[in-house]
């Protein structure tokens, strides 16, 4: 177990210089000092109950374990800002998740989730939500209440349509919808005025709405590995676009207007 204090960014806390053994969780003095706990690739099947008493905990990293149950007791750690269950065996998330009022990042990717509780909408400070590679066919409409959300990754699920509520996430900058079962992109995609990264590769798209040209801050667009036959000329309006991936489609032609995209690399 490694301990650290920096929760400003989400990365492996490799430079932590304080280490404790598992038995140190029995020490109440140490528990009172902890800000972050890093338990990764430890073959955990359950969470040490002592963690529930660490009231000042900001960051709880439990990735790459074998945890089957998301204990609701975690949801009472009111100071948590980062919580990751990436690559575990979770089948559900308790509705008490809504109690984590200071949470800024939630990662429950690579699990066995079939649904996300509507109470996730209570996480008003949430900025990054990773729910990729689960068994999701939908996400709750209440997600629209996540006004500060900047990154949403729903890749590798079973979505057939993009939930309309996503288009009202006014601060969203990065949207990943890779490898779902999407057949279309609605015109409302243009509502995401702050979007910088959009990846919808490996779906079943046959067309792209011309309104995509309204995403003036877009820097990266990946629509490769679909069934696209035509690209709207309005894509030329994306003057900040640096990356455009169109490969593995059914395109007969590419609009000459693309040559106007001077920022492409």
CATH topology of the largest domain: Leucine-rich repeat, LRR (right-handed beta-alpha superhelix)
Strand order of the largest sheet: 3-4-5-6-7-8-9-10-11-12
The total domain count is 2
According to CATH, the homologous superfamily of the largest domain is Ribonuclease Inhibitor
The coarse silhouette is elongated
Overall CATH architecture of the largest domain: Alpha-Beta Horseshoe
Number of strands: 12
Structural description of this entry:
The structure is a single chain. With 265 residues, the protein is mainly beta. It is built from one helix and twelve strands, in the order E-E-H-E-E-E-E-E-E-E-E-E-E. It folds into two domains: 1-115 and 127-135, Ribonuclease Inhibitor (Leucine-rich repeat, LRR (right-handed beta-alpha superhelix)); 162-265, Leucine-rich repeat, LRR (right-handed beta-alpha superhelix), CATH 3.80.10.10. It has one helix at 28-33, and strands spanning 2-3, 18-19, 36-38, 59-61, 82-84, 105-107, 128-130, 151-153, 174-176, 197-199, 220-222, 243-245. It has a ten-stranded parallel beta sheet, with no helix packed on it. Strands 1-2 form a two-stranded antiparallel sheet. The chain starts with a strand and ends in a 20-residue tail after the last strand.
């Amino acid at each position: 177990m490694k301990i650290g204090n920096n929760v400003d960014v989400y990365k492996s806390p490799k430079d932590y210089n304080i280490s404790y053994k598992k038995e140190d969780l029995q020490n109440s003095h140490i528990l009172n000092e902890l800000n972050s706990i890093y338990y990764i690739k430890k073959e955990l099947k359950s969470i040490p109950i002592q963690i529930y008493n660490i009231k000042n905990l900001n960051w709880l990293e439990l990735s790459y374990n074998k945890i089957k149950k998301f204990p609701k007791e975690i949801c009472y750690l009111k100071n948590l800002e980062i919580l990751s269950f990436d690559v575990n065996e979770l089948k559900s998330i308790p509705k008490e998740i809504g109690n984590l009022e200071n949470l800024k990042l939630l990662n429950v990717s690579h699990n066995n989730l079939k649904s996300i509780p509507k109470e996730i909408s209570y996480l008003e400070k949430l900025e990054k939500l990773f729910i990729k590679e689960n068994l999701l066919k939908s996400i709750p409409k209440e997600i629209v209440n996540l006004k500060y959300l900047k990154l949403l990754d729903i890749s590798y699920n079973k979505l057939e349509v993009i939930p309309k509520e996503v288009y009202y996430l006014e601060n969203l900058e990065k949207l990943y919808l890779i490898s779902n079962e999407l057949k279309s992109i609605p015109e409302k995609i243009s509502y995401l005025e702050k979007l910088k990264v959009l990846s919808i590769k490996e779906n079943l798209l046959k067309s792209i709405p011309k309104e995509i040209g309204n995403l003036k801050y877009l820097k990266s667009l990946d629509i490769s590995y679909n069934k696209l036959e035509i690209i709207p000329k309005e894509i030329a309006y994306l003057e900040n676009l640096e990356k455009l991936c169109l490969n593995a489609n059914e395109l007969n032609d590419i609009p000459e207007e693309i040559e106007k995209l001077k920022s492409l690399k």
